[in-house]
Write a structure and sequence with these properties.
- Helix content is 47%, strand content 11%.
- The two termini are 35 Å apart.
- The radius of gyration is 24 Å and the shape is globular.
- The strands form two sheets. Strands 1, 2, 3, 4, 5, 6 and 7 form a seven-stranded mixed sheet that branches. Strands 8-9 form a two-stranded antiparallel ribbon.
- The mean pLDDT is 90.
- With 420 residues, it is an alpha+beta fold.
- Helix 4 runs antiparallel to helix 12 and helix 7 crosses helix 8.
Length: 420
């Protein structure tokens, strides 16, 4: 009901009698944490943007342990089918609660919706669309996705007074989150700027202390027998006061369906390693000129010391893989390097850089994820990263948003149906 806006009149009454206007259900979260991110509602004239949790019964909140989980402290609305309990945050403040009873008609609509869940709605008609239209549309979509990523880079560049290396640092951090932890990594990079890290580039320990401390992962009362951990705590205590830093909440990091070798701790240690002895990623990327082997060497970075055999603090292991696999490095080339080329082209007017972005994506293998598996099931396969980026963009920005009339495929199918 919530995800597909099956709420009828968008103005409702909360269980405490206040009026609420539902604007946007937010984005469905398929990992741990609240059910929906970035929802928008208006309560008594005040607009709220935040996370929403959904339960059949209000009492499921405590049954699921959310009352003891800080990740649920920023919930702006609790949507329930049955109001059988008042729900509070950890600090005791009440969470606004909305009752949305399920009628037989809604239940029937739900069944029809879930029958199409995870598939392409026009899959049965894709064979009616000629290959030339598909090819041209996919090329447009790939450039659309590049432009969206480039715009983020350009926006950040303006905020950093044209410092390309600072932009690369933030986007490298975001890319190291590999989707699951992209936002936490971006927040981490922005909380301790490259200008601060550069002052300590000759000390890997201090770099790690700054990053782990800002990630909210250091507490002197924990791991008291781990000498390395305690050393990081002492370093961060001094540096955080020197630079007036405030750490992020530890609860923002996600570990669902993540192997120990890919835990955020190792990615943070890798980010510190990238800054050690100076950071010049933009220069090195431009010098490589879309040479895949040269670009892969840039990210062929090995962890050292403590993180050679640890996936977490006080958790040693002898079976850890490399810091970044070839597949992970190629994802960095797709999601970081290609957009960098495209953004640089947009600002400099050098169209050859745009060609490099396309050349790089065409030369790389396609990603392997659930979205591309769905397209493959519909008969459309990606033979390179340029095509896979197009299919990901099509699914996220058109299919899921139900913008079928704005999609050339949907538009052609509708026009063809109108002629019959």
């Amino acid at each position: 009901m919530w995800q597909f806006r099956m709420w009828g009149n968008s103005e409702k009454l909360l269980n405490d009698g206040r009026r609420v206007l539902l604007l946007d259900p937010g984005k469905l979260n398929t990992d741990s944490g609240p059910d929906f991110f970035n929802a928008k509602i208006i309560i008594d004239g005040i607009e709220w943007v935040g996370n929403v949790e959904v339960h059949v019964k209000a009492s499921d909140w405590k049954r699921h342990g959310h009352d003891r989980d800080s990740a649920y402290n920023n919930i702006i609305l609790h949507v329930v089918g049955i109001d059988d309990a008042e729900i509070c945050r950890e600090d005791g403040s009440l969470i606004p609660q909305l009752v949305m009873p399920i009628t037989p008609e809604i239940a029937q609509n739900y069944v029809q919706l879930v029958e199409d869940a995870g598939v392409i709605r026009c899959r049965g008609m894709l064979h009616t669309v000629d290959e030339l239209l598909l090819s041209n549309w996919f090329e447009t979509l790939a450039f659309e996705r590049l432009q969206v990523k480039a715009n983020r880079l350009i926006e950040l560049l303006r905020a950093n007074c044209g410092d390309w290396e600072s932009v690369c640092y933030v986007f490298l951090a975001r890319s190291l989150g590999f989707g699951l932890n992209s936002v936490p990594f971006e927040l981490l990079a922005k909380s301790v700027p490259l200008s601060v890290l550069r002052k300590h580039s000759d000390s890997l320990l201090q770099l790690e202390a700054l990053l782990f401390g800002q990630a909210g992962m250091l507490d002197m009362s924990e791991h008291i027998f781990d000498e390395y951990y305690q050393l990081l705590c002492r370093e961060y205590y001094f540096l955080s006061r020197k630079y007036q830093l405030r750490p992020l909440a530890r609860s923002i990091w996600k570990y669902a369906r993540t192997r120990p070798a890919n835990f955020p701790h190792r990615r943070i240690a890798l980010l510190a390693k990238c800054v050690e002895n100076g950071f010049s990623l933009m220069r090195r990327v431009l010098d490589a000129k879309a040479d895949v082997d040269a670009l892969r060497k840039i990210f062929d970075i090995e962890l050292s010391g403590y993180w050679l055999d640890h996936s977490d603090f006080d958790v040693a292991s002898t079976r850890l893989a490399k810091a970044l696999s070839k597949k992970s490095v190629d994802l960095l080339l797709i999601n970081l390097v290609a957009p960098l080329y495209y953004a640089y082209s947009s600002l400099s007017g050098d169209t050859s850089m745009e060609d490099l972005a396309m050349e790089l994506l065409v030369s790389l293998e396609p990603e392997n994820n659930s979205i591309l598996n769905v397209w493959a099931g519909a008969g459309i396969k990606a033979d390179n990263a340029f095509r896979s980026q197009a299919l990901i963009h099509l699914r996220n920005e058109y299919c899921d948003a139900r913008k079928c009339l704005y999609c050339r495929i949907g538009n052609r199918i509708m026009r063809s149906a109108g002629k019959k």
